[in-house]
Amino acid sequence: MKLRTGLLVAVAAAAIAVAAPAQAKTFKFAFQGDLSSLDPHSLNESFLLATLGNVYEGLVLYGPDLEIMPGLAESWKLLTPTTWEFKLRQGVKFHGGQDFNADDVIFSWQRTLSEGSDQKVRGGQIKNITKVDDHTIVVETPAPNPILVQDLPYLLIMDKEWSEENNATNATSAAGDNTGNYANLNANGTGPFMIESHKADVKTVLKRHEGYWKDIEGNVTEVEFTPIKEAPTRVAALISGELDMVYPVPVQDWERLDDADGVSALTGPEARTIFIGFDQGRDELLYSNIKGKNPFKDQRVRAAFVHAVDLEAIKEKIMRGAATPTGLLAAPQINGFVESLNTPYEYNPEKSKALLAEAGYPDGFEVTLDCPNNRYVNDEKICQAVTSMLAKVGVKVDLLAQPKSKYFGKVLSTSGYDTSFYLLGWTPGSMDVENVLSSLIVCQDEENKRGMFNLGNYCNPKVDELTAAIGSETDQAKRTAMIEEAFKIVKDEVGYMPIHQQPIAWGVSDRVTVNQRADNGLDYRYVTVK
Amino acid sequence: MISFILKRLVQSVIVMLTVALIAFSMFRFVGDPINNMVGQDTSRADREALTERLGLNDPFIVQFGRFALNAAQGDFGFSYKFRQPVNKLILERMSATLELSFVSAVLALAIGIPAGVYTALKKKGFLSRGIMTLSLVGVSLPTFLIGILLILLFGVVLRWLPTFGRGDVVAIGGWTTGFLTVSGLKSLILPSITLALFQMTLIMRLVRAEMLEVLRTDFIKFARARGLPDRAVHFKHALKNTLVPVITITGLQLGSLIAFAIITESVFQWPGMGLLFIQAISDVDIPIMAAYLVLIAFFFVIINMVVDILYYAVDPRLRADDA
Fold this sequence. Notes:
The structure holds 2 protein chains of 2 kinds.
Chain A: H1 2-19, E1 26-31, H2 46-52, E2 60-62, E3 68-70, E4 73-80, E5 83-88, H3 102-112, H4 120-123, E6 128-133, E7 136-140, H5 160-165, H6 182-185, E8 193-199, E9 203-208, E10 222-227, H7 231-239, E11 245-247, H8 254-259, E12 263-278, H9 299-308, H10 311-318, E13 324-325, H11 349-358, E14 366-372, H12 379-392, E15 396-402, H13 404-411, E16 421-426, H14 433-441, H15 461-472, H16 476-492, E17 496-509, E18 512-513, E19 528-529
Parallel strand pairs in A: 1-10, 1-11, 14-15
Antiparallel strand pairs in A: 2-3, 4-5, 5-7, 6-7, 8-9, 9-10, 11-17, 12-16, 12-17, 13-17, 18-19
Chain B: H1 2-27, H2 34-37, H3 44-53, H4 60-72, H5 86-121, H6 126-140, H7 143-157, E1 170-172, E2 175-177, H8 182-215, H9 218-225, H10 230-259, H11 261-267, H12 273-283, H13 286-314, H14 316-322
Antiparallel strand pairs in B: 1-2
Helix pairs in contact in B: 1-13, 5-6, 5-8, 5-10, 6-8, 7-8, 8-10, 8-11, 10-13, 11-12, 12-13, 13-14
């Protein structure tokens, strides 16, 4: 009997398969890394979030140019400086058929604060959520927060009932202490795509969710994702026609793609800024031949360094013209970007030498530059170029380029900021300059978790004051003025050496059109297969 | 015989423990796993809490002891990255690696031995010289390069074969096999050739050298004097006597095939254990690295044991000693 039922099911399934419309549009792509989990709260990492952003949704969504669009919330307004009212969209269903309502939002927010969650920073932007009715909620923030919605696209909403049924009310922990979390390998979102099958690190297949609440621009009905670690294999798979898109494509392969038939390189500036920082906090540098004092505390020395580095040469020689040299730690795509301060420091080795002499280092000095070699586009080459440019003004740089696991294990706060001079890249998670200021620029403050990526501890109380005000100012004009003031101080004091916005490069087949988002995110909503 | 196997098994445990110990003492140099497990915005307190929960703050010997104790019960813990049991991840991948290694080993033996015999018998032949020259390429070109060249030629230029992956697989119980689908078989061709090439040339050169040696010995001359046909002399007497060293090397190389599939797997994005391992290194996924190394040590021990048993079958002198 059982066998017969099984057979019937099989026949029925086959019938459905045959009846399905013939114009299935499959989009196959590869990325260098893999989708380590399907749990939207497990890891705060851009590829995972951008990918799961096709399956799960937040109250708001990113548009094609990273602009904020209404998502599961139809509208929102500020009630008091610390409370917001969100009207939730009605009639939205999860892939499993459950209705979306206010309880799901409250549940998901609480889940981001659960033990294994890596979204505690996002969840922590909210102090409390109260349900007014099934489709209205009031969100309370710990302090006035004008940019709350900037942080919401990736606070992805799960279904409460589904999570409870499957015992997945806590986020999947990296420590393996809530074992076999259902949400790690299964997904149930409201997004336009559903997970059809997922084998971590091998292949993930997604199917269009027919009941999606909104029409989408693209026409893709099925998406196949394969991680391909090796860049040559990735590029070969694209040129051979097996895949429709691969990313990232190394700089040296761009020409090859453009020369090949039927594929091209789609490049653009990423919202990530690459920069070099100086240890300005210690009284003596950890890695230098100057003892008893810290040359980087002297603004003239920092200025000498920035004037010695030729950003145009780095752009042309190392990035094949595709980088955007910058004078600011925030990219144009970031909310609050200050155009007038974005001009890079002038390249002027003579001035650099004069400044060094004036500061008392006519013959330069020695310092070690910490650099990752597999994290950013051509990171080690950038460091080599900086090393040789500084040599021309007499500064002897020892380059210590290491894989990212070693590099981050050395320079971050957990290792006590063990660096004197370092290269780092930053995309603010909230896509707002406030995150840049409070992570990279305010004084290190362990207690309040601020300035945690200000590895060299650039510190100016005035900037701290401004940053705090920027974080809570709801008047846009005042806020913009304060942002400009804060960045102007940092720039005048040469707090950092901004290098460039690194390029994003995707290899795309002529069969498809895609939208390249500046956070390197691929949104299947905008993919069209010819 | 039984006591011999038992002794070997005890030795294998010691070997695996040693491997685990050495591996563990090296993991601290791979880097900080925590940074790969959390996003950039995660606070220092959360990072430290995670380190503590993973037991990474414990002294080396405590961490190792915990690992050895759990491993002895067959529990290799959880992957930091995938948040899944390591056992499950490795078992899922094992079929891919074993199938690839098996096909490569068959290729290496099926082509290597006849080619070795042929080049030994027809030392001066045109074809022999050609084979010998080609074999130099196999020995000297790195696997990575061979893989990329094959991909370029057969995948990109001719477009006959897939450039990456395993194609469609069929699951039989816990085992997934690519032998049963056309795309699975097509996907096997390039990686298995890449992986087999080095072993193939090695076996060929070894067989050739041994054959030449044996052919010079008195008993072969005597066999010829007796008027035995060439076939009997070459294959019945000469080849059989060359096989003892060939078995040793082949056995060891089979272990290498599994272990060094890493490079081939990463060039072809072959979803096997090697690829899992190499990803684990860049992510500092210690549980996966530890389990993989111990498993590979286990494979080597088992293969060596099988090789030793095979000696008994091939070499009658050993059996005589035993008796």
